[in-house]
Amino acid sequence: MGVTDKNPISYAVSEEITVTVKLLQNGKPVSCPYFYYELQTEDGKNKSETVSGEKGILTLKTTLSKAGYVKYIVRALDADKAKLADIREFSGGAGAGFEDIGKAKSQPADFEQFWSSKVSTLCEPDVLEQKEISNPASGYKGYIIKLDMGSADPAYAYLTYPENSENGTLKAAIIYHGYGVNKISPIYVKNTVSLSVCAHSMELDGTAEYYKDMQAKLDGYGFKKVGDTENSDKEKVYFKNMLLRDLQAARYIMNNPLWNGKDLTISGGSQGAFQATAVAALCQKATELNITIPWLCDIGGETSGRINSNFRPSFTEALSYYDTVSFAAMLNKNCNVKIEAGLGDRTCPPSGVTALYNAIKAPKSILFTQNRTHEYSPEIAFVYEK
After folding, report:
1. Which of the ends of the chain has fewer CB neighbours closer than 10 A, N or C?
2. pLDDT cut 90: percent of the chain above it
3. Per-residue pLDDT at 385 exceeds 90
4. Mode of pairing for the β-strands spanning 170-176 and 259-269
5. Of the candidates 367, 201, 370, 172, which has an alpha carbon nearest to the alpha carbon of residue 285?
6. CA angle in degrees (0–180, nearest 5) for 182-222-254
7. Which residues contact 375 (CB under 8 A, 6 or more apart)?
8. What is the pLDDT, as a whole number, of residue 381?
């Protein structure tokens, strides 16, 4: 486990940051032959070293000369300096000048105009096909719906709501999902008409062979490949039609007669957080936005010294139109935003998530967990709130 000497998102620029990492057994430090650590700061410092683990405690000190974050990785090693089996590495961070962390790249001047023009091309969100789910949760109706996208590929989602609901009585909820080409599941929320939206134009009740073919077809979607022009033209970026399908799903639920016309919660994690934020910004009707480990924040930040994501398309000017931070700045001022993130997340680095938080003009909160990565949340959690 590792902790800083104060709230890790409360340091000032140039203030000394101290982190203490302990190898624990039954709550007490135990020795190991060696510790290996990496320390990287967003003002350009990089250090790695193997040191004695005799006391089972490692203390690291550094400063940041500008607003940003420091990244820590600490591993316990055996006598041969190999990672000790079954001991998870510490992956954490700390930030300085929290309120001054913004997007490294400027937002395109025509960002809002570009998306307004895309939204204006959407047809009515008519249901092209509706299939009843064979085994919905008890007390609920459930359907697979296919939504019209005009000349573009249709959108697919699960629609669920409590049985015997009367028009105008239900809250609305939409959830979007993480990166990948996988089957999704419906959601069931009390007193709510809900959508679980597929990121791709893809059948929700296909065969195993169908999904295998779709995974091959969409392998590496959103990432620029050698010889591919997809991410050099904002009109060709894969995420464009994804977001428009996502928005069409939101437009459908806002037109659904069961909705009370007031309460709309939009949620998602990772890629789903990117989608949820974009849809909330573009529909302007969300009353709650709940996102975790949000992806595609501060695209290109690494070109200005920010800690790079280990899973994000390389920066192009076209991808600037798909930055979650820019969508966050568009959220309506009555949307309550809740964010959860990890200080050890290398896929969605904390500087980008902080830039997203700082861009929001609506009521907001953020929870950063120390040693939380994109894939892992610690059992003993040190959580810090803004």
Report:
1. C
2. 95
3. no
4. parallel
5. 172
6. 65
7. none
8. 72
Please work out, in degrees rounded to the nearest 5, the angle formed at the alpha carbon of residue 198 by the alpha carbons of 193 and 204: 90
Structural domain of residue 18, as residue ranges?
A: 2-100
Contact assessment for residue 211 and residue 182, using Cβ atoms and an 8 Å cutoff: yes
* Inter-residue contact 142 to 119 (CB < 8 Å): no
Calculate the CA dihedral of residues 325, 240, 281, 122 and round it to 10 degrees.
Answer: 170
| Residue among 339, 381, 331 at smallest CA distance from 360 | 331
Tell me, yes or no, whether 141 lies in a domain.
Answer: yes
- Clarify whether residues 64 and 156 are in a common domain: no
Please give the average per-residue pLDDT across 104-114, as a whole number: 97
What's the confidence (pLDDT) of residue 225? 66
Helix axes 111-120, 238-255, angle to 10 degrees: 60
Same domain, 51 and 117: no
On whether both 132 and 278 belong to a single domain, the answer is yes
Length of the chain: 386
Contacts of 26 (CB under 8 A, 6+ apart): none
Query: Which position has the token pair 């909160």?
Result: 365
What average pLDDT score do residues 93-102 get?
A: 98
What pTM does this model have?
Answer: 0.97
Tokens representing 242 are: 């994804």
The identity of residue 50, as a single letter, is: T
- Owner of token pair 């994690």: 269
